[in-house]
Amino acid sequence: MRQIPQRSAVPTALTWDLTTIYPDDAAFTTALGEIQTAADQAAQLKGQLATSGADLYRVTTAIFALYRQIERAEVYASLKNDQDTGNATYQGLADQADALAAKVGTAVAWFEPEVLALSADQLQALIDQEPQLKAYQHYFDVLGRQRAHTLTADEERLLAGASDIFDASAKTFGVLSNADLEFPVVQDEDGKDVRLSEGLYGVLLESVQPAVREQAFKALYRVYQQFRHTFASTLSSEVKTHNYTAQIRHYGSAREAAMSGNNVPAVVYDTLVKTVNQHLTSLHQYVALRKELLGLPELHMWDLYTPITGEPSLKYTYEEAQQEALKALAVLGPDYVANVQKMFDSRAIDVVENQGKRTGAYSGGMYDTKPYILLNWQDSLESLYTLVHEMGHSMHSHYTRTNQPFQYGDYSIFVAEIASTTNENLLTDYLLKTQTDPKVRAFILNHYLDGFKGTVYRQTQFAEFEDYIHQQAAAGQSLTADFMSDFYGKLNHRYYGDAVVSDPQIADEWTRIPHFYYNYYVYQYSTGFAAATTLAQRILSGDAAKRDAYLGYLKSGSSDLPLNVMKKAGVDMTQPDYLETAFQTFDDRLAEFKQLAEQLKRQ
Ligand SMILES: [Zn+2]
């Protein structure tokens, strides 16, 4: 068996270089002291910003400078901690940085309420007095949108004090599902006894043995079903909290309140749900093809995740993957490629697995650092996809940070996954253009189709359910387990169609989905994936203006509203066109996959 190395045994070239953030831990500790002093000074600025434009500028820049300092410290500590979570020194540094961040938050908690206490006209008059405040105009405009939804200081204090209580349903859900639920022992593929868990459930559902999948599915749902009334209670309370908070903050609905966080209008949500529903036949066809290719007399809900193409023979070393990534992303232009190459050459990537290293992958860093990437490299096609995905985030960060001031140097969640998923789409296109082996092509196509199914379709299904229960609760309907299961079962059948057996357990799937406690979050997965499919097509059209429009999005950061940024990039998310383009791609790739699968079967 392969041994996972200790952190100290990993070749330096494959580790990230954090000395450009702070030369050493002593410098980090010095910085913490400076931040503490700056935080104390920032607390003293309370009550000064409304006197003149010059004062507003002085206070605002001091606050942003403090944010910038603490972010740098937090990034250093968390990256150090992630490279080896078993290292007590870095656990300690991360704890110190977190504690200081909380202090900073308290020290400047007055700042936004103080700005919002000014009327829109008063604030604008101050901005107009001081030319340097122009650089903060959009920031103040966005902040000003909260004015109508901010309560009196006393009321805000009451709400802040109750925030823990408002979080109780989500916490209870988490404790019950992560800690208290006891899952039975089932058999894995080798007939070995294994204790079921949510994590293992995902693995067993990918088994090639139908009996293993069925047993896992039934065993898992037996446990959740025992507690379905408890889960109905936690979910119902969560929904009521969203509805209540939206109402007292003068929003038209919980959805409007939640979406206003990213400044995204409701029409984006409605357009998504409506358009996806017009293309459910494509999902039905995909499910029917799955049934045919698996050769099953009946397709059940537990048969939706097992691979239908088998593992591809494609393997890449990290060096080979770097070359493939550069070729796949070449269509984004020489400057983009040069910046990717720079990421490879400057030790911005922590490549290989080591003992104690945080699992998975991410792109991190902040305004004053490189965009760092954490990987746990395996020589596989999946790792190549992960590399270009995280590179998409890192290039988004790079272009934003080199084109925007600090106050616009980040970007909202609504647009973040679009940059990474566009890169995945470019890789898919590149692989389809260069790989000729039908087996490999089938795997790549299936990778795309499964991603589309799990993102665009499944997350929209969740979004539809989430919106329905919020609306029903707002209208006075009691969200009992039976009421929610009745709707969920029908919804699931509408999405997957007649080719799959509507196993009764699936009506209770809502009991185990943590995303229903995220408050209108999931729709962004669907809109992002669809937008990325469309943007990749525009880039691949060879029209330089379309490519530059895309790069314009990467450079925008949070300098404009997310919807405006995407519109300038070529995707109007209030209209169904971008979704239509994505479904056309899904249909085309489904047709090619079907053809290949039939060809492979004859061989
Ligand atoms: Zn991502």
Automatic annotation (TrEMBL):
UniProt keywords, alphabetically: Hydrolase, Metal-binding, Metalloprotease, Protease, Zinc
Ranges for domain Oligopeptidase F N-terminal: 114-183
Cofactor: Zn(2+)
Note on cofactor: Binds 1 zinc ion.
Highest taxon, organism lineage: Bacteria
Keyword Signal: no
Limits of the Peptidase M3A/M3B catalytic domain: 204-584
Known EC number: 3.4.24.-
Any Pfam family: Peptidase_M3
Family note: Belongs to the peptidase M3B family.
Function according to Swiss-Prot or TrEMBL: Has oligopeptidase activity and degrades a variety of small bioactive peptides.
Protein name as catalogued: Oligopeptidase F
Classification lineage: Bacteria, Bacillati, Bacillota, Bacilli, Lactobacillales
